[in-house]
Amino acid sequence: MLESEMEKLIILFPEELITHGITLHSQQEVFPAGRTDLIFIDLNGNLLVVEVKSVQLDRKHIGQIVEYWPQVKQRYSDSNIRLMVIAPDIPYERRAYLEHFQIEFREIPLHIFQKFQKKVTGRRPPK
């Protein structure tokens, strides 16, 4: 499954895949460090920057979202900013790092995304 397909499903089912009470603010917003995958606004008005990966989370993926933070903070200086990574597999050492730096994460196996894709398409997704 492509990351862009995962993003679309997260946009359609944010409460089921991330948390309740969030609304999409932007998708693929451009910053000097690159494009953020998704930015949501939570019930408290905080921005939730979400980086989506379709493979096992590695060090460079974490660095990617960390690089976005100061640029998002500069653009949205009045907002509190939360960071989140979503991947189908997040190894223990990456989880520990994310927890230490208060970066939220969701490990969502690809078969879960495929179930949501089936809801949208009404048919079984190809393997």
Essential attributes:
single chain, 127 residues, alpha/beta, 5-stranded mixed β-sheet, 5 helices, 5 strands
Write the layout of secondary structure elements.
Elements: H1 3-12, H2 14-17, E1 23-31, E2 34-41, E3 47-52, H3 59-75, E4 81-87, H4 92-100, E5 104-107, H5 110-121
Parallel strand pairs: 3-4, 4-5
Antiparallel strand pairs: 1-2, 2-3
Quick description:
By secondary structure, the chain is of the alpha/beta class.
Summarize the main sheet: 5 strands, mixed
DSSP summary: helix tally:
5
Task: Please report the total strand number as a whole number.
Answer: 5
Strand order, largest beta sheet: 1-2-3-4-5
How many whole angstroms does the radius of gyration measure? Answer: 14 Å
Round the mean pLDDT to the nearest integer and report it: 93
- Low-confidence blocks of residues: none
SSE succession: HHEEEHEHEH
The SS-based structural class is alpha/beta
Proportion in helices: 40-55%
CA(first)-CA(last) distance: 9 Å
Q: Which geometry do the CA atoms define?
A: globular
* Portion in beta strands: 25-35%
